[in-house]
Amino acid sequence: MNIDKDLVAAMATPLVLAILSEGTSYGYAILKRVRELSAGDVEWTDGMLYPLLHRLERLGYIGAEWGASPEGRRRRYYEITEAGRAQLVEQRKQWATANRTLGGLWGQAASPAGA
User: Fold this and answer.
1) Do residues 26 and 80 touch, judged by C-beta distance below 8 A?
2) In this structure, is the dihedral angle defined by the CA atoms of residues 92, 51, 10 and 30, taken in order, positive or negative?
3) Based on the number of CB atoms within 10 Å of its own CB, is 107 exposed (0-12), middle (13-18) or buried (19 or more)?
4) Residue closest to 82 by CA, chosen among 59, 105, 65, 54
5) Which of 75, 59, 66 is nearest to 13 (CA)?
6) Over the stretch 67-78, which tens digit does the pLDDT of each residue have?
7) Secondary structure string (H, E, C) spanning the chain
8) Residue from 47, 79, 76 nearest 60 by CA
9) Rounded to 5 degrees, what are φ and ψ at 28?
10) Is the pLDDT confidence value at 24 over 60?
């Protein structure tokens, strides 16, 4: 499936914050989790993820620190902050409204193939 880039961009912040609310993670693991959650329909690149992580860090929604991977290589680990948790709550409210609104138009039982 080819998901419109505007929709991918719109869901990027809440998706990363939700992933980090599960626990500390690093770039490649976040990319892998996005792919897993979307059943392969959403494929992010490094070029999309890292600018987003840097922006979320500047906004104070996540923190980052260098650490060692199990293989001994340096890796940057990201963690959601309290401000990020508050932002995630707000994002969830907004997406619930969007889902409810579209669901009302498309019917809750509509299949993706029927869209």
Assistant:
1) no
2) negative
3) exposed
4) 59
5) 59
6) 988 888 899 999
7) CCCCHHHHHHHHHHHHHHHHHCCCEEHHHHHHHHHHHCCCCCCCCHHHHHHHHHHHHHCCCEEEEEEECCCCCEEEEEEECHHHHHHHHHHHHHHHHHHHHHHHHHCCCCCHHHC
8) 79
9) -60, -40
10) yes
8-20 pLDDT per residue, tens: 999 999 999 999 9
Q: Is the model's pTM score more than 0.70? A: yes
Task: Look up residue 28 and give its two tokens.
Answer: 């490649």
> What is the SS3 string spanning 85-98?
HHHHHHHHHHHHHH
| Token pair in block for residue 91 | 């994002």
- Cα 72 to Cα 39: distance, rounded to the nearest angstrom: 30
